[in-house]
Amino acid sequence: MGDLETVKIDVEQGVAVLSLDKGLYPLDVVYGAAYVLIDRAYVLLDRAPDGRFLIRLQVKEGPLDTKTLTALAGEMQNELLSQALRRKITKANKQLLETIVTRAIGGATGALTPGVFPEEDDLDFLDDPLGIAVPWEERFSKDAKKDKPTDAETTPELAGPGDSGGFSPTKKGSEP
Predict the structure, then answer these.
(1) Around Cβ 70, how many Cβ atoms within 10 Å?
(2) pTM value?
C-alpha cells in the first residue's frame, strides 16, 4: 500500500499539490476544506487515474517561496482533519440536532388551539364596526364627487405679495 498522503511543492510554478488516498477523506470533507482556503489560495480539485484526490493550491497574494507553499499545504492538511472531525460529530449528533431544530420551529409558531380568541366567534365577515367597508363605486362615483366640497372651498387663502402672511386682526371686507 502506498502513501496515504503526499505533498509536492513546485516553487517555479508557485503551487503545492496534495495527493490523498481516496479512502482517507470523504469528498464532502475535501470540498469543505478547500472552501475554507479559497480566500487565500486558488484551489483546484482533481482525481488522479488511480482514483486519488489531487488538490492543487496556488497562493493568491504574497511570496511564492517554499516556506509559503509548505505553510499553505499544512493549512490544507489541518483543515482536512478539522472538516473530518466536524463531519463525524455531526453524524453522531444528527438525531439530537434534528430534535432541537424541530422543537424550535414548532415552538416558534405556537400551538394552534380553537377558542383561544373568543371575540372572533362573535364577529361576522359582513360586520363593519369601524365603518371602513365602502364599495369602490360608492366611494369614487361621479355622484359622490358632487357631494364633496371643492378644493377652493376647503383650501385656506394663501398670502400674496405684500401681504402679511395671511394674518389680519380683522376679517377681510370688514375694515373700519
Answers:
(1) 13
(2) 0.55
